[in-house]
C-alpha cells in the first residue's frame, strides 16, 4: 500500500511514517522542509509541498492508495486555515485521481464535551478557557475541516485525540465513536490508530475518539510540562 502522510515532519507524523514503513508500506512523507526530515528508507519518498498549494498537493496524491493527515499548528489567536485549506486541496486531488480513503487528525476539543475522567478542573475550567481563547481559531478551523469531509463522497474518518503526550511505544489504546471519557492520547497511539484505520472500514464516515490510559500523565503533570516547555 502506498500511504501519503501530510504533516509528516510533526511529532505524530514522524511516528506515523516510521510505523507505516515498519509495517511494510510505501510512504510519501509530505513536508514543507524536506531537508529537516529525519527518516530515510528505501520505501520512503520525502516530498516537498505546502498544503496551501493545490498543484503541489495534486502531484503528491497522484499515486496514493490512502491519505493520512497529521497536519497541525501551535495555538494562536490569529485566524487559522491550514486544516480547512489543506483538506480542501487534498480531497480535490483525491477525487481527481480516484483515491477514496482519507483519515485526518482533529481534536476532542473540536466538539467540547464533559470527560468522565476529567474532573472539575478540566471540564469546568481548562477546557472552556482554552476553547474560548488560545484554541478558539484552531478548533474553529478543525470544525471547518470536518465539515468539508462530511460533505464529500470520500471514505473519511476523523480521529479525535485528547491531551497529547509522548510515550516510548504503542499501548492498548481505546477507540470510541464520537466521544470518550479519557483525557489523554499518546502520540505513538495516535499514529498507530491512524495507520490502523488505513485498512479498516469500521469507522468510515465517523469521528473517533482515541485515548490512552497506560502511562498517561496526570492533569497536573501535563500542565506542568506545558508550563515549562521550551522551544
Automatic annotation (TrEMBL):
Q: Which PANTHER family match?
A: FLAVIN REDUCTASE (NADPH)
Question: Which residues does the UniProt record annotate as the domain NAD(P)-binding?
Answer: 7-200
- Quote one Gene Ontology molecular function term: riboflavin reductase (NADPH) activity
InterPro entries per the record?
A: NAD(P)-bd_dom, NAD(P)-bd_dom_sf, Polyketide_Oxido-like
Species name: Candidatus Protofrankia californiensis
Q: What is this protein called?
A: NAD-dependent epimerase/dehydratase
State the SUPFAM superfamilies in the record. NAD(P)-binding Rossmann-fold domains (SSF51735)
Amino acid at each position: 500500500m502506498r500511504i501519503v502522510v501530510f504533516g509528516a515532519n510533526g511529532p505524530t507524523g514522524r511516528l506515523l511514517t516510521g510505523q507505516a514503513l515498519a509495517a511494510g508500506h510505501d510512504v510519501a512523507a509530505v513536508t514543507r522542509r524536506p531537508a529537516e526530515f529525519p527518516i530515510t528508507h528505501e520505501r520512503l519518498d520525502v516530498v516537498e509541498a505546502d498544503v496551501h498549494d493545490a498543484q503541489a498537493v495534486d502531484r503528491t496524491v497522484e499515486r496514493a492508495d490512502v491519505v493520512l493527515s497529521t497536519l497541525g499548528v501551535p495555538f494562536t489567536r490569529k485566524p487559522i486555515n491550514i486544516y480547512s485549506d489543506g483538506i480542501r486541496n487534498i480531497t480535490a486531488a483525491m477525487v481527481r485521481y480516484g483515491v477514496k480513503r482519507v483519515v485526518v487528525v482533529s481534536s476532542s476539543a473540536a466538539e467540547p464535551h464533559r470527560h468522565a475522567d476529567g474532573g472539575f478542573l478540566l471540564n469546568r475550567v481548562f477546557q472552556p478557557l482554552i476553547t474560548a481563547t488560545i484554541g478558539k481559531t484552531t478548533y474553529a478551523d478543525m470544525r471547518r475541516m470536518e465539515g468539508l469531509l462530511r460533505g464529500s463522497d470520500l471514505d473519511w474518518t476523523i480521529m479525535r485525540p485528547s491531551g497529547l503526550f509522548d510515550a516510548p511505544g504503542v499501548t492498548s489504546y481505546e477507540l470510541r465513536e464520537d466521544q470518550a471519557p479519557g483525557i489523554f492520547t499518546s502520540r505513538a497511539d495516535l499514529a498507530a490508530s491512524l495507520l490502523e484505520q488505513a485498512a479498516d472500514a469500521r469507522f468510515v464516515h465517523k469521528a473517533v475518539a482515541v485515548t490512552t490510559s497506560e502511562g498517561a500523565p496526570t492533569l497536573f503533570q501535563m500542565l506542568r510540562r506545558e508550563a515549562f516547555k521550551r522551544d
